[in-house]
Description:
Blueprint: E1 2-7, H1 12-23, E2 31-36, E3 42-49, E4 52-59, E5 62-70, H2 82-110, E6 124-129, H3 131-138, H4 144-147, E7 151-154, H5 162-173, E8 175-180
Parallel strand pairs: 3-6, 6-7
Antiparallel strand pairs: 1-8, 2-8, 3-4, 4-5
Helix pairs in contact: 2-3
Amino acid sequence: xxxxxxxxxxxxxxxxxxxxxxxxxxxxxxxxxxxxxxxxxxxxxxxxxxxxxxxxxxxxxxxxxxxxxxxxxxxxxxxxxxxxxxxxxxxxxxxxxxxxxxxxxxxxxxxxxxxxxxxxxxxxxxxxxxxxxxxxxxxxxxxxxxxxxxxxxxxxxxxxxxxxxxxxxxxxxxxxxxxxxxx
Length: 183
């Protein structure tokens, strides 16, 4: 059985040393079968869910700029008939408004004002939240340079808030170690 462990990049050498010490001399030791790093100095973060959004610009492990907001997008209803169709239209309109707001903030925070310049010299992107909403946000022509950047995806994050944005930054920078357990 394999599992993935996320370790902060500054802690990884000591973590690896302790891992090797604990498994030395065991008849069936755990083995590291993969190490994935995501080392980018200037990192853009874009998290979107129906409950809100968080956009950040990080240098190293520090957020240098961010914008966090909430949005109400009505959930689905089980009732049928006219009301269901009316609520579906309302949900669609609310989601469109959220996407428009996120596109504007992302363009302001993550891209360079000069269209000829590369995306504010970002080295990488971290995307999280709702895949469909993120795809709609990234369709904006102003965000085209972001699509070609190396990306780490974290779709298991909760509704974006500032604490969630900070957690996403930690996880985006983390070294992902794949461990094979014995048996």
